[in-house]
Amino acid sequence: MQTTSKTPWISRLQHKWGLENTLQVVAVLATFTLAGSSVVWLRKGLFWLLGYDANTPFWLKTITYVLFIFPTYQILLLVYGGLLGQFHFFWEKEKKMLLWLKSKLNPN
Length: 108
Fold this sequence. Notes:
Distance between the termini: 38 Å
Low-confidence stretches: none
Shape: globular
Number of strands: 0
Mean pLDDT: 92
Structural class: mainly alpha
Number of helices: 4
């Protein structure tokens, strides 16, 4: 299938992601939405529990985000993806990301 600017965006996503139908595209987009919204809510709660405020150094917030929030987002993608029938899609993406991360941390 050739994608052009006249092809509907949802069809382009379906083709790019290798999904079988529009409903799967909607489920994947819903998964991203739910995981993103959840992680924002969890970040606010975590930063409140840790006592972070406007005076907390940016580097400390960044380290906290990378160590706790980023992995939580990845887990939420799998959880919501599973609930919406797209676990395999997100598991394949997670495996690729983990291999990429491993190659960056251990270039041998």
